[in-house]
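Most newcomers find our protein records easier to grasp once they have seen one. Read left to right, the backbone structure tokens trace the chain's path through space. Nothing more is needed to start thinking about how sequence determines fold. An example says more than a description, so a record of this kind follows:
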Amino acid sequence: MNILVAEDEILNSMLIERVLQKMGHYCTVVANGQHVIQQCNSQLFDLLIVDVSMPVLDGLKAIETIRNTQNANKHTPILLLSATYPHNYNQIKELYQIQDIVLKPFTVQDIAKKIEIIQQK
């Protein structure tokens, strides 16, 4: 799979990238929501892994832009990264067509399991 990872914490992004590469995936890593939009406007991904809280433009605003504009990733599956479980997660999941959430701190198995589930769909 070709996966976009949007995570501003360098250790988290390095861990996710390493996990994805060991699983045989190719990934592009960006550190803010504006770069998410730029990448999604120029490249097709099989999966987006997007942190909620990022500088420049937060993850939900980036996802909203992707879902509401005509680009190749409008219907791409998304895993949301968050340090806390949003109180309105079910609304967020429905509104932004989020497949699942990965809570921080996460384990290698957490990421791998969520990706495998998405691959099976």
Remarks:
- DSSP finds five helices and five strands in the chain.
- The CA atoms of residues 67 and 74 lie 5 Å apart.
- The longest helix spans residues 10-22.
